[in-house]
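Input chain follows. Return structure tokens only.
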Amino acid sequence: MEKKRYTLYNGTVMEYRVQRIIETIKASLTRDGRWRLPTDNLIRLLDIDPAEFYRTLYREKDNLPLFDMIDLFTDNDAGNLIALLEEIERLPLIDKKDSRSEYPPLPRRNGSRIEEAFVKAGLFIPHSDRIELMECFISEVNARLSAHSIHHEDFTSMYGVAGDFYRALDMYYAEYFSLGPMIEKACLRFIEKKHLDTTAYATVPAYLYSLFQRHIFDPRGLFLFIEKKLHSFINKNNDSEQDEKPVSDITRAKRILGLESGLITRKRLKKRYVTLMKTYHPDINPEGLEMCKRITSAYSFLRTVIS
């Protein structure tokens, strides 16, 4: 007679376990959005046999290479932690006298309640939302650039002190384009739109700051429009007319985004940026960093131009 198969956790039990894990992670959360969860704690929270846990880990080692006998989970591992929990949820439960090894995991289900729980808790940002958050931040940058009037005298003084255009440019950015307020506004808009837990007020800004640490966002690329204006000023070719655009730079930016023909609108520009990020974002394409930086720079530049 064929033995009956049950999942290791029914839906209600697994949801309870996941909530315990989430609450434990939130309790360890630092002000800068970082968290740590030792594997021993995870096993205890799941109330799972350690041998079963590590068998699952080993079986998934090709899909979850970072977790091969890992002893600590951090905020950088959130996506893989979710994938691991999904695999554990699928484990078959047979009479304890029997070996589970002969029974394959149950089929995958569409959607992920576990991922949704982590997202709502503000502990995980899916890739599509990451791109939306990036675009939200660039919108804040664009608003700041559009409202900014070049302070020629200040830049002249900075240039005299620095003795180098790009050093003076960095001084100018530090004075007039502080990242903190722009990141705060972008995150607030994003969190309110997504109805995320208050935990997100720490984790979402942490992700944006990480984009600068990983050089996915480059201040010089984001503020390229200002650089062009100041460079023209230093070269005694002052672009004081706000409607005057550096045509060659616009053409170059259009070429990078693949928008060389047709009218450039904000809607079309945004759609193209999102499409390209789905291909070149380093979280998906490890070799896409340089192209990602060029795309973001071109997008920020053109958004400011058409504004």
